[in-house]
Write a structure and sequence with these properties.
By secondary structure, the chain is of the alpha+beta class. It has a single domain, classed as 2,3-Dihydroxybiphenyl 1,2-Dioxygenase, domain 1 (Roll), CATH 3.10.180. The strands form two sheets. Strands 9, 10, 11, 12, 13, 14, 15, 16 and 17 form a nine-stranded mixed β-sheet that branches. Strands 2-3-4-1-5-8-7-6 form an eight-stranded mixed β-sheet, covered by helices on one side.
């Protein structure tokens, strides 16, 4: 009997040792299901609240990530997070961008397994949400958010639109950023273009499991400066705010503009005088929040032929 116990124990030990030598099973990347939010700074909280609530029509909420912040929600899955302007921030008004995922913890472990620097655990919100933050290759903060299991509906009847279809920020080197967004996360090409022929100023990378996209706003066009990061010397607050932006999709920019104008919602707002046609063939209308962050209303679909490149993925929808 004792011999059988010894043999059994030896077999268990051998099995455990053999299992320990097996290679770890690769972690599959969870889905990245679209934009969660963009977080911006304000030096004028009251004016910023007026902009996002009265002009844009978002719903004010408590900020579950930062008690000093405020959320302005367009739906139960997307919002603009507004944070107090930190000391020493200079002209920067962008804190981070964020994407929804169906499994924040597995995505954190996936990136860690790929030798990407991530925190040791996810954060948890009182509503059941989970999230973690990391940085892209140029040092821009990026969050990944897992929504609560049963998010409550959020009516936003006054919102000029309910869908943030893209966010964009200043990028120095397209190839460097691609090592994170394309190679690790599976973002896919959507469109690229520029102000003049032969120059690329904007590169749209669509998230792998939705039609929302990130727009690289290329500071140096086709000739990136090796190792460049941060805000270039001499850049103005206005010019940086043009680059660091969000876009709300609408069926008709002309109709949305008419709604805002006829209701007097554009009074005192830094905004274009009329709509315009973008280089991608989609109607646009640009407004700026009190600290210069650009909010772009954009048609879901192109009504003219885009310049520079064709669309290589499906358009977003309402």
């Amino acid at each position: 009997m004792q011999f059988r116990i010894i043999v059994a124990a030896s077999l268990v030990a051998f099995s455990l040792a053999a299992a320990a030598q097996l290679p770890d099973k690769p972690i599959a990347r969870p889905r990245i299901t679209g934009i969660s939010h963009i977080a911006v700074y304000t030096s004028k909280p009251a004016a910023t609240e007026h902009f996002y609530v009265d002009i844009i029509g978002a719903v004010k909420q408590a900020d579950l990530e930062n008690p000093k912040g405020v959320r302005y929600a367009l739906s139960n899955a997307q919002f603009i997070e507004v944070l107090p302007l930190p000391e020493g921030s200079g002209i920067n008004r962008l804190d981070h961008t964020a994407w929804n995922t169906d499994d924040a913890e597995t995505l954190r472990r996936y990136l860690s397994a790929k030798a990407w620097k991530v925190p040791g655990q996810v954060e948890r919100g009182s509503d059941g949400s989970r999230w973690f933050a990391t940085k892209d290759p140029e040092g821009n903060k990026v969050e990944f958010v897992q929504l609560p299991e049963h998010p409550k509906p959020l009516p936003a009847p006054n919102s000029i639109g309910q869908h943030i279809i893209h966010v964009g920020y200043m990028v120095h080197n397209r190839a460097v950023e691609d090592t994170f967004y394309r190679d690790l996360l599976g973002f896919k090409p959507y469109w690229f273009g520029g102000m003049v022929e032969g120059r690329t100023d904007w590169v749209s990378q669509q998230s792998p499991d939705s039609h929302d996209w990130l727009e690289y706003m290329l500071t140096y066009g086709n000739t990136p400066v090796a190792g460049s990061t941060g805000i270039p010397a001499g850049m103005s607050l206005h010019d940086l705010g043009v680059l660091d932006h969000l876009s709300i999709g609408v069926d008709s920019v002309d109709a949305a503009f008419k709604t805002l104008k006829n209701a007097g919602r554009l009074a005192g707002v830094d905004a274009q005088e009329h709509t315009q046609m973008g280089k991608d063939g989609k109607g646009q209308f640009n407004l700026f929040d009190p600290d210069g962050i650009r909010l772009e209303l954009m048609n879901f679909h192109a009504t003219e032929k885009p310049c520079c490149s064709p669309f290589t993925a499906d358009d977003p929808a309402e």
